[in-house]
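Q: Sequence in, structure out?
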Amino acid sequence: MTPVIRAANLTFSYDDGTRALDGVSFELYPGECVALLGANGSGKTTFALHLNGLLTGEGEIEVCGMELSKENLPPIRRKIGMVFQDSDEQLFMPTVLEDVMFGPLNMGLTPDQAGARARTALERVGMAGLEAKAPYHLSAGQKRRVAVAGVLAMNPEILVLDEPTTYLDPPAERDLAVLLRELPQAKILISHDMPFVRALASRAVFFERGRIVAEGCVNEIVERFGWDLQL
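A: Exactly. Output:
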């Protein structure tokens, strides 16, 4: 099976000299959900931001068979949908519908096409009927669903979710887990929420000081590093 993401020997240092990634190699396969685990500052988010060119280091990255390059950035960014930790960073239009239409419109779709995609995505995440509502009037769980809808409206093949349960209460976490399990896209899940990770991920990799130091099934990695006890 061909991976949808392949990274080989990825390295990156910030301007202050901090080595954030130190020879990271990683593969993600169609339909699987992989959790990136490790302490804050271990390189997880830095790695994720390389996948669609928001950060650029040394090494090789391929997304859906395309080499990550300046020329390939537009199609690669259509393949990867990123849901950031703070939904307010993604929701900035006056209404829910306009927010979810934003990505498709910027892909060149007509307003009618973008509106149809947005409504389909909102229905898929259980937010149909709230199209005219202002995003800042939504609950944290609703905001997360709208952020996911905005990504789904662009028809990505891969979802990258950075701490998706931040600010969510337990019922909203459960609802989000159910939603994500039903989505067919391959997923990268960055999270310290071990019950959420166990509910979704089939595999985990553990980051430490910019390197992947272990990978395997979620329970094996969590137990090996005593990760439940550290949270």
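The longest strand covers residues 19-28.
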